[in-house]
Amino acid sequence: MLDYKLYEHSNSEEYVVLIHGMGGNSSIFYSNLKALKRHFNILSVHLPGHGKSPGVEELGPFSLETVAGEVIRLMDYLVIKKAHFIGISLGTIIIHYILKISPDRVRSAVMGGAITKFNLFSKVLVQAGKLLKSFTPFLWLYKICAYLIMPGKMNRRSRTLFVNQAAKMKRRDFLAWFHLVDTVENVYGGVPESSKGIPKLYISGSEDHLFIKQLDRDIAQDPYASMKSIQGCGHVCNVEKSKEFNEAAIQFLLESERNIKQAQ
Q: How much is the pTM?
């Protein structure tokens, strides 16, 4: 069973599931929890190989489908039939996978720093990482990737947070996740069709140059998806601009919940 933290609300019956990115853990939602807990029950999940969750080798053949299935299994264990989701970076890919295999478990989704496809630079970065991984300490590789995805002073806080948490991972867990990068581009295809009727808000920093342009093109075909760009912000927008992220996410979740109840 995945490691998790559960924050229960005294009045709300609705749950929000938080899914972090690779190398992070629930600490990346530190700046968001207080605001979210005012309105919802919160389930913060540690993905395989992160926090106290099982290592990837304990789950058998490791894939993004396996990870999505483990999140759903945790919801079953906690008797959460349906929930809103918030994901950051790689967490958005897991949400996309859940939207494909179990859309009936999703009320709505907020995805920060979402990844749908890699641009040419991203692909070169991945291939370079594959060449270096055999003889480079994995934390060096992670630091290089983190700096390229989250460059400069603007991203220093989120970059430091992710690197510090990644240092707690085991090498084999990190490399197992890194091997899944090639499968990322196959995930988004079919999501607009499988998630019809499910509202989705994509929040990205205007300076998230590796992913935002392709994301904007991809979700333009989804009538249930909307996009918000936060100015002067990079990839990990929930950390770098937490106030703006919280306001947009909570407003969207509350509005989605009202619309769902009105339609029932």
A: 0.90
